[in-house]
Amino acid sequence: MSGYVLIxxxxxxxxxxxxxxxxxxxxxxxxxxxxxxxxRSIAVRTPDAIVLDTSLTDGxxxxxxxxxxxxPETRATPILFVASRQHRGVSHRTELMRRYxxxxxxxxxxxxxxxxxxxxxxxxxxxxxxxxxxxxVAPHAAQPEHRSSTPAxxxxxxxxxxxxxxxxxxxxxxxxxxxxxxxxxLKRTPFAxxxxxxxxxxxxxxxxLIRDTTKKIVAFAAGYPVSVRSNxxxxxxxxxxxxxxLISNEALQDSLRRMKAEKRHQGEILxxxxxxxxxxxxxxxxxxxxxxxxxxxxxxxxQFMFKEGDPPESDAIGSALRLDRSPAALxxxxxxxxYDQARQAAVLAAYAGKYIALNADPVLRLQEATSDPTExxxxxxxxxRTRLETVIxxxxxxxxxxxxxxVALSQAGxxxxxxxxSRRAATPIPTTTAREEEAPNGPASxxxxxxxxxxxxxxxxxxxxxxxxxxxxxxxxxxxxxEVVDQAYETLARSFHPDRYRQRPDEDRRLAQEIFExxxxxxxxxxxxxRRRAYTARVEKQRPSDPSSGPxxxxxxxxxxxxxxxxxxxxxxxxxVEAFRQAARMLPDQADFRAxxxxxxxxxxxxxxxxxxxxxGELRRAIxxxxxxxxxxxxxxxxYAQSGQPDLAVGEFERLLELDPGAVDVxxxxxxxxxxx
Length: 677
Prior knowledge:
Blueprint: E1 4-8, H1 12-21, E2 28-32, H2 35-44, E3 49-53, E4 55-56, E5 59-60, H3 61-70, E6 79-83, H4 90-99, E7 103-107, H5 115-122, H6 159-177, E8 182-185, H7 191-200, E9 205-211, E10 214-221, E11 224-230, H8 237-243, H9 249-262, H10 266-272, H11 278-294, E12 303-308, H12 327-338, H13 341-348, E13 355-358, H14 362-365, H15 373-380, H16 388-393, H17 399-411, E14 415-418, H18 435-438, H19 455-467, H20 470-474, H21 482-495, H22 506-526, H23 529-542, H24 556-569, H25 573-586, H26 591-604, H27 609-625, H28 630-642, H29 646-659, H30 664-676
Parallel strand pairs: 1-2, 1-3, 3-6, 6-7
Antiparallel strand pairs: 4-5, 8-12, 9-10, 9-12, 10-11, 13-14
């Protein structure tokens, strides 16, 4: 081990990204989501470094950092701050590094790729105690794989696991006695391919897997594995917690004794004992499910049978405890843990000497296999024009990682081999070009990592794609090239892919699926020259001769705009961006919509050059639409002022005062800017 690192991060998605950035490191990682539990964890074991978000659910990261610096035990512990949206300015970086030295400052997610090198620079090499061999531990979002240094005594077994074993045996008998809708062997259909098939066919039901005396039952909902039960007593919660050193041997035995006496769940008892935080309990419970699933990837053979229909109540589909990775991500992790070089080579043999293309089916092609930006870029660069060997040799990720990722993409159905190079133009990789400023309505201004929409927003977007034309649905112009249409579609389709809404209620999933299908139809029409010409002719005939202007009309677009303003005032910039973007798609000629979108884009990532260009493009477009728009002038002036261009800011504020002489705050800002020049 190179050191023990504690991650304190409240955002689950960001914590997953941090974990991915450290996946292959040799650091021992623990994680907490709240400052209060982080302090308890630090009191038990002092970390060699702390990765700390500037904003936590129970306070600021700065408050925790102040306490750490006052404590002699942690006064010199390096702190690597992860900048939240509220704290991204240059002044914050300088102040934090000075005030909390030794410290580093990283913007998320753009600079997370530097986290590992920053840790290596911050942590002095330490001598680790001998590590005993044992099975690898299932890592969660922020915990790379490591092994337990203290084997668990098994004198007292987990009562909950014994109950689960009995339930699995009963359910297995029922499934075996019924007519299966699908059955076979894992030697003929490896588990990864079986997961892919059930996902592609969107199956709901129970999958029974049997190897010798081991039985496992995986429950599926619309193609997604949501729970796993096993008759193996060793796959219990306490062992996972002990292997990850989240609890001590003594705490484990004490909890087992209390479980037996009090007939309560082990996790509940551990939290009550104050030896485990609620967050780490929830993650460990999910990891317990994952451990049962990932172990199947190691099976060389076994029988399986799948029965469609709602799984039994005991499969806990309706409970809060569910597998939270997509099928492609589960396949990638299972292969990473259990496929050796020979097994990987056997999969890739079918691709030897052939061209590698992404699957034409967007449901398969756009699956969320990884959250690592470099791996995502590797996937997007697969264009169907390059043979396997060249894809691997030219990869900008390590060769072993490229091979493993290609194996996972193959098993997940995301890529296909071909004897001939693709003739279809590859979807362009987003780049920084003048297009971002000239066409802010296009894909350049659409972030691929925007948060899933609320049910209200989904309903409004669904209404848009039902009622508006394909150009508005994709956010492209009539004269845009096929390459621009492809890029716009890829970004939007990824945003509404079923993977993104797999954990949401049924109605959310239904609406997202409807939007996804409408976007697919728009893409098919606009990228086919003949269909596009015919469609454009119909659109032109239906176009009103006098475009609407004046006050914002009531309706869905106005509701989205108002919601966006509420998000903006509450500093929920990501949500504001999404609301303004959807409003602008519905009414693309409303200057206020463009102006608000531009300002929200800038406030979401003020230090990101690409976001700044997209924001500037929206603000300029707003002024083109309405040169007298006070909102557009106001936001553009502050954009220039906060991006280090005071002379341009002065010009915009002078024009704004001509439009609104009574704007006192603008006059004050103008005076301050003139004094600084």
